[in-house]
User: What shape does this take?
Amino acid sequence: MSGTSVAADSRERAGGKVQPWHRDRLAAVYVRQSTAEQVADHQESTRLQYGLVERAVGLGWARSRVLVIDEDLGCSASGAQARPGFARLVFEVGLDHVGIVVGLEMSRLARSGREWHQLLELCALSGTLLADLDGVYDPAEHNDRLLLGLKGTISEAELYLIKQRMWSGRLAKARRGELAVPLPIGFVRRESGEVVLDPDEQVQAVVRLVFDLFERFGTVNAVLCFLADNGIQVGIRQRAEPGRGQVSWRRPSRAVVHNMLRNPAYAGIYVYGRSRLDPRRRQAGRPFTGRVRTERAEWTVCLPGVLPSYISVEQYERNMQRMQANQSRAASPGPVRDGPALLAGLVVCARCGARMTVRYQHGPQGRLHPAYVCARDKTDYGTGQCQQLAGDCLDTHVTGLLLAALTPAALEVSLAAADQVEQRRAQVDRIWRQRLERADYQADRARRQYQLAEPENRLVVRQLEADWEAALAERERLGEEYDRFTTARPRTLTAAERDQIRSLAADVPGIWHAPSTTDADRKQLIRQLIEQVRVAVIDTTEQVQVEIIWAGGHHTRSQIVRPVACLTQLSYYPQLAARARELVEAGHTTRQIAERLNAEGLRPPKRSATFTPNAVNDLLRALGIQRTRTPARHARPKLDDHEWWLRDLAEHLDMPEPTLDAWVRRGWATGYLHPQARLTVVRADPDEVERLRALHHVPRGQHNRRPWLTNQAAHLDNIDEKGTDGDVEQPQL
Assistant: This one.
């Protein structure tokens, strides 16, 4: 230590800042470098900071009482990331274990005002001193506190100026397209800085296959499944040592495929600023977290045509639009999902413009019946439901128009499908052959290394021999896998397969309804030809106006009939009622009435296509037409007081008999099966009859909400009883 430093130490001890009780504590020497590169390249600064131990010894501390904190080598002091060393220092100061904190300069401790003033406050409360090469400071004294605050402000401003200069230089270089940014799969950077396509043909073939598959299938999941089913791997250049620059073959993942499709570099576009740092999303201990993707309008630099390309800009735009449409949002149709609703995501309400959702109901034998529902206002604002209709009638109508449009181009579609199948098989076969060629090269290279070695040097020859055998075994394994692959999927279509495709093309409806054709396949084909289906139910009737918007802008308008819940919703209900009365007055039986109504083109509500005798009975009962009672009805056994035959009570309540029967089975009404007549008997006194009548007039859907409302009322009553204690401090619901 120089004489000047010794003199300064003596003056500081004489000044009275360093007291004996300070020396009873530890002297903490804080060592930090901002980056790992500075630790490796700027070793002189690191040595100077470790040399501060002598500075603490010169101030009167024993060498054994000097604590060196160097956990933050390679950590920035800007406050954007956690520093374990600084946290340890604050912890020791807060516990009164440290008498003095020594640093090369105050900027080594913190460049953030929050952390800096936090440390000053703790040091002032615990009586800890701060020291650098310029002197010793007591944060509890006003003048020293003012000087330390000024040093911290200058340090923070210096960090801002450094960042600003670096950002300006980086931005200027990026605007020229010369800033080196991380390259995606399929690109390499030469020593001159020029970006070129990966010289490995197999890497290029896999990248091109990914984009061709997405152009064909339209979803990331379908592309991933195709790659996995065909055993195709993705070649990635390693960026870190050892093996930097070497190709590593890995199985494809969803994240890899998704990033490849979203990266504009594959379209030859140089982009800088696709993401920004959000400090709120940073995770402690993970320095690379917190990155947020920005919209295209917010990109800092976007230079088309700077990089070599795999696809065109137009194809990249199509891919972005399709991926955005696959998102499960109200403004997009979403991806193709399983389920029998063929128009899911395409149906739009013509009344309010909202996209209609799909609801399923279980029918006989577990079959799902879809329904398209517009309930956006009901969901968001609690208002009434806009409209809904059964999905089967709409799907059948749109499917018929679609198949009629496809029939003229069936032959061209079949030939195009055959060509696409052959092209995909050829691409996959080419990748497999490149893998075999690579394995041949590795085996030949291992052979040449073995032959060039000296036979006497057994320590080397044994290892080279093992490497050669491993390369030969890998080549044999790949050959066997390729043989199995070509057996299952031949490279070219056989004559029988081509004839089958042509024969199927002549029967497009047969292909559509074939068991091998899945609902996902049908939906995918529909989305290729239809952009949107707009529907509007006329009032509450069975008539529905349909407008189909085809790909290309052509519109087709038509009208279909949907199933409705009751007779009064039918648009021709007055005509149906008048005709039924005429037929009854003419003395026709129910079967004859049903045949006449069907012949005249009148249809019942719900899903029935024709009138049946039972449907005619329901119609006459709804119209209040009393027919002559049959003798069998008079011969029924006598019932007790307040007991009704189910049919008689249904007529008395003016409601459908199946509805009352369902109430008995659900327990909403009390009944039993008569042992002699084998008919349902309902127990109902006058009060019960009025209750059932009121229940029949409750709006549809109210039955499902009644249990919830009852529970809420009971819960509120319970709260009111508990709230009578006068405890106003206890919050209540």
DSSP finds 28 helices and 23 strands in the chain. The CA atoms of residues 361 and 369 lie 5 Å apart. The radius of gyration is 41 Å. Confidence is low (pLDDT under 50) at residues 1-8, 10-15, 722-733.
